[in-house]
Write the structure tokens for this entry.
Amino acid sequence: DARVTQTPRHKVTEMGQEVTMRCQPILGHNTVFWYRQTMMQGLELLAYFRNRAPLDDSGMPKDRFSAEMPDATLATLKIQPSEPRDSAVYFCASGLQGGSGNTIYFGEGSWLTVV
Amino acid sequence: DAKTTQPNSMESNEEEPVHLPCNHSTISGTDYIHWYRQLPSQGPEYVIHGLTSNVNNRMASLAIAEDRKSSTLILHRATLRDAAVYYCILRVLDSGNTGKLIFGQGTTLQVKP
């Protein structure tokens, strides 16, 4: 079963530390999305890529968050420095774009707690 | 971004059909209607999608109004495992023809034994 793989699954870190979350999209998918989920805000789209090129990161706090795709099999979301308000579940999703009907598949999430 | 409106919560009895409504009065002609669900402690999971015609798959059916301003997700026989948050989403294309999902608050479905 092809699936989106995210690491780490759980992370507890101290405020001010750097956090890097990684995502392996489904092989052959050309679009990758990063979402954040909190109780207050629900699921928010942070950034997305197509063919490894960043298309939109307007949902991300620019001063501390960065998203990259070093290659087609790896997407990263970095927070530096982390703050307690960054505590959330971060989901990566991938899809094969060819029109708006295409399905997006989500990973199981990276559960981040910043203390 | 195009918006959808769903009830906050619904209840169903096990093994009975469930109809989850969604309003999307600002839908445009190229917007696909997608439904995802999220079980506790898991990532969102694709359920079904459609454009104009009703759709069926092994998980559910999607009934789309003729004017496309509303749709209904139908679970034919609810099980306890169907208890989840169900999201109705309009998948819109950006200027580069990439589709993205903007989630609303969804409907929390409770299934009673």
Observations:
- Chain B touches chain A at residues 30-32, 42-46, 49, 51, 87, 91-94, 96-106 (CB under 8 Å).
- The CA atoms of residues 9 and 60 of chain B lie 18 Å apart.
- The radius of gyration of chain B is 14 Å.
- The longest strand of chain B covers residues 84-93.
